[in-house]
């Protein structure tokens, strides 16, 4: 019994300590962003490995998610004779929820885990300590460019996801199922609000990009420098990112779309 | 990491396509292009009952959207619904005897404010009042009255 309480106390304390370290890490990283700006080459390399390499998985998933939404939406809406509103349904669900959330989950799985593994391995092979020995700040040289790249890529990826998904819904809806193409687009345009839907969706994706890159980089930086530690850190990145993204999504939705 | 010009091109393509996606969402998907923040002026209409009217419901005249509802409030003195309409500046020549009515688009569709222009030579100004209004038709009320009337007819 005493042992249980001791464990509970220790675990609580460890997790608070970790949160504290994480916050400190975030502050260091954001202050390091300034020193990235004079060296855009660092940022460009990371945009390539984080953004460009996630491009394919994001667009293909977006296409299929949009196509599934088109099919499912059509089956339900045709019961009410409201196939014309298919466009609204596909666009609203993509722009508001699925676009930011699913692309953030894919981003955490594709780019986040790679970041954690890369930085964890750098730590395990003492590359980070080596840099410190050469008076190069690893936060400024390694972490900040990756953070900035993740932060910038995420909204672009989410926008691509939504755009490709809407086109996918249109391909299935009016190409295969015979919804009027004009009605698909005009109903969508009449009902999707720029401020309420698009801008809020973009804000969501920015927040998710921030959180997912923070978690991925911190887990890598904080990993126990062994092969097992790196593998655990990678797992934690995916799990924690998924939790934070979905939890934050609820909070953001409650704040944004309360009418 | 080795950097090559191919990498630069790929990053450029990625950023360009992401921004193209954002533009697509803004212009093709949302209502940004159809009704942007034009200059508007405000008119006030008082309805006995504004029904299911909502903020941002369209205001149209002769079937063309000319503005939207900017606020709806209840006046505790006169027990009326006070609806503020923001109308696009380019339609500033509405006569001051214009009639405002709450109509329904389609059988189950959303409600909107319809403005019927009158014949006066004076135009409504910013902050002006629309004096002649027709309330929303409440379906339950109409059905109730109809049933009551047909029952009364049968008794005769």
Helix/strand layout:
The complex is a heterodimer of chains A (259) and B (156).
Chain A (H helix, E strand, L loop, with lengths): L1 H31 L7 H40 L6 H39 L2 H7 L4 H39 L4 H11 L2 H28 L5 H30 L3
Helix pairs in contact in A: 1-5, 2-3, 2-5, 3-5, 3-6, 3-7, 3-8, 5-7, 7-8
Chain B lengths: L4 H25 L10 E8 L10 E4 L2 E12 L4 E9 L10 E6 L6 E6 L11 E3 L1 E3 L4 H17 L1
Parallel strand pairs in B: 1-7, 2-6, 5-8
Antiparallel strand pairs in B: 1-4, 2-3, 3-4, 5-6
Which keywords apply here?
A: 259 residues; mainly alpha; B: 156 residues; eight-stranded mixed beta sheet
Order of helical and strand elements of chain B: HEEEEEEEEH
Q: What oligomeric assembly is this protein in?
A: heterodimer
Largest contact between chains: A-B, 33 and 26 residues
Which word captures the global form of chain B?
Answer: elongated
Low-confidence stretches of chain A: none
Mean pLDDT figure of chain A = 90
Q: Provide a count of the helices of chain A.
A: 8
The largest sheet of chain A, given as strand count, sense and whether it forms a barrel, is: none
Straight-line N-to-C gap of chain B = 96 Å
Strand content of chain B: 25-35%
Largest sheet of chain B, order of strands side by side? 7-1-4-3-2-6-5-8
Instruction: Give me the number of helical elements of chain B.
Output: 2
